[in-house]
């Protein structure tokens, strides 16, 4: 079943055309890694999927609901889409537990006691059950990012968007975050990741999408794509990053 | 023999001093709460309100910050009755002090809000929060924490400025002092005394604010800055 359907999406910032007609279908349970140079439009595409940016034209459909500028409130959108950011964006004045509980309580109006149970489950899943009462500033970057993942999961999204979630981390902390994502993928979570971790893309993704100058330049199964790139741009990109 | 200090001459007026002090403290506590509360609303609406609202509130803030407090007070107490709005002195004092503190604090708070990282609002939005929800739960506390020292100073300035309300016959600490020295002609003693009382009030206020801040902003301890 197709969960995310992107059809001929364009987006410009002023005169700068960032997305020049993107078509992308993501099936339920699929893990899609988006790679490409900075400025190729990867993050913009991801941000269009939860309307942090509004696309200028084309269609985006998620779980059979069409997204148009302002057609869905953040609340409705959050039923389907969760997002994890490069810079974690944990709320510094709230404990780990409160960070995770906040949205289900405030946005969905769920009972605090039920939400706390869910929070402990998702924190356990990311290996941080013991940090429930800690503040973000007391955690390492990797731990903070795992809390951010747990926070997104507590809203039970159908698809989780990950925008360069390991780029702000010290190298030795990257692994712990990737392992969490890998476990989510194994559980059947639909993931769309913008990433610079080519090893991760190769090992975990079902499909890799290479973006270049606002278009999807090449896509395919990771093993095939990495070992046998067809376009010179992808060849050049792979040789530059590997 | 020169003049001598004799604080015992104030003894018969203790009840006036207590009355004045109580009024000053109550005025200060109430207007600090209402003023800061109003400031939050003004700051929020100046960032997120309709254009006419932003414009109107901008006007209020600028008028308040660029006119003398005593004129604002006189306008409310002596001026508004001209429009048929009659307010008693203590209410006029509450209104003037609240509006004054709110205007300055709203500007301070707005700086704290605009220093909020864009990512915080995006994260709140991605979690499904409305603008109002993200301000209430995500933006407000860190914004307060950022500008807290300035807010303390502003609240203290308004407390000290409250001495002016004695001019519209509110029986505050300054009014009590004026009253006493007009009876016993011991102006040196009585003004020295209330100077010290204001000083202690200001120190006490700062101290109380700090204690509250330490609790509310406890999350900052251990934060690397």
UniProtKB/TrEMBL annotation, chain A:
Under the heading InterPro entries, the entry gives: AAA+_ATPase, ABC_ATPase_HisP-typ, ABC_transporter-like_ATP-bd, ABC_transporter-like_CS, MetN_ABC_transporter-like, P-loop_NTPase
One Pfam family name from the record?
ABC_tran
Annotated GO molecular function terms are: ATP binding
Q: Which domain of life is it from?
A: Bacteria
Q: Does the keyword Cell membrane apply?
A: yes
Q: Keywords assigned by UniProt? A: Amino-acid transport, ATP-binding, Cell membrane, Membrane, Nucleotide-binding, Transport
Give compartment(s).
Answer: Cell inner membrane
What is the recorded membrane topology of this protein?
Peripheral membrane protein
User: Residue limits of the ABC transporter domain?
Assistant: 4-238
The UniProt entry's sequence similarity note says:
Belongs to the ABC transporter superfamily.
Q: Can you say what this protein is called?
A: Amino acid ABC transporter ATP-binding protein
Native source organism of the sequence: Vreelandella lutescens
TrEMBL record, chain B:
Where the record annotates domain ABC transmembrane type-1, the positions are: 21-209
Transport in keyword set: yes
What's in the keyword line of the UniProt record?
A: Amino-acid transport, Cell membrane, Membrane, Transmembrane, Transmembrane helix, Transport
**UniProt cross-references to CDD domains, sorted A to Z:** TM_PBP2
Looking at the record's lineage, which domain of life comes first?
Bacteria
The residue ranges crossing the membrane are 20-45, 155-176, 188-205
Give the subcellular location.
Cell inner membrane; Cell membrane
To which protein family does this belong?
Belongs to the binding-protein-dependent transport system permease family. HisMQ subfamily.
* Bilayer disposition of the protein: Multi-pass membrane protein
Q: What is this protein called?
A: Polar amino acid ABC transporter permease
Do you know which PANTHER family this protein is assigned to? ABC TRANSPORTER PERMEASE PROTEIN, MEMBRANE COMPONENT OF AMINO ACID ABC TRANSPORTER
Asked whether the keyword Transmembrane helix is assigned, the reply is yes
From the broadest rank down, the organism's phylogenetic lineage runs: Bacteria, Pseudomonadati, Pseudomonadota, Gammaproteobacteria, Oceanospirillales
